[in-house]
Amino acid sequence: MSSNQINEAVYVLQQGGVIAYPTEAVYGLGCDPGNHEAVQKLLDLKQRDRDKGLILIAAEFEQLTPFLAEIDISLKEQVLATWPGPVTWLWPSRSGVSSWLRGEHATIAIRVTGHPLVAQLCRVFGGALVSTSANLSGNPPARKADQVRAQFEDQLDYVLEGEVGGLAKPSEIRDVVSGRILR
Questions:
Q1: How many domains is the chain built from?
Q2: 71 with 177: CB under 8 angstroms?
Q3: pTM above the 0.85 mark?
Q4: pLDDT tens-digit profile of 118-169?
Q5: 182: in domain
Q6: Residue 1: alpha-carbon gap to chain centroid
Q7: How many CB atoms are located within 10 Å of the residue 144 CB?
Q8: Is 181 among the domain residues?
Q9: Helices 116-125 and 3-14: crossing angle, nearest 10°?
Q10: Rounded to the nearest 5°, which phi and psi values hold at 66?
Q11: Do the domain assignments include residue 183?
Q12: What are phi and psi of 125, to 5 degrees?
């Protein structure tokens, strides 16, 4: 992966675009979480119900903190022990975090990725990204760039080519407060 491709993807994100990129198990769709129009475009492309909420993915925990409420340090340590890696946590959201990110929930889904390409993308972008599987709602997630293009044709603003990680299923989702595994 060349730095030119990362820079192109970041430029598209900064312009309010929606991109596709490989993650630990599947291709993801992403955009700038601070750009409402980009988030709406992503939801429309995916045909996803806004009330479900979205995942934020980051290279390091600090990129997620603007979205998070304070929690007990022991719970925070449990979360941090699972990262970087394919565990998504539902964390109480900070007051003012938009419902177009968290859906109808009081929590926000977050993950520090273990995929080196996505981590590099977040570092160059300078923050967390929206991340949801690259598929139309109800269809199987894409695992290759050509599968992404087949589902979305020319509707995406950029496809960052790369290999997905070795996981067979999308990330596990856990609730930080209850410890429940939801997926």
A1: 1
A2: yes
A3: yes
A4: 999 999 999 999 999 999 888 888 999 999 999 998 999 999 999 999 887 7
A5: no
A6: 20
A7: 15
A8: no
A9: 50
A10: -60, -15
A11: no
A12: -65, -35
Domain that holds residue 73: 3-175
- Domain CATH for 83: 3.90.870.10
Q: Which helix (H) or strand (E) holds 37?
A: helix 36-46
DSSP per-residue letters across 54-77: -EEEESSGGGTGGGB----HHHHH
Domain annotation covers residue 70: yes
With tokens 């160059």, the residue in question is: 124
Q: Is the pLDDT of residue 179 over 70?
A: yes
User: Which of 110-139 are b and which e, b meaning 16 or more Cβ less than 10 Å from the residue's Cβ?
Assistant: bbbbbbebbbbbbeebebbbbbbbbbeeee
pLDDT in tens, 31-86: 999 999 999 999 999 999 889 999 999 999 999 999 999 999 999 999 999 999 99
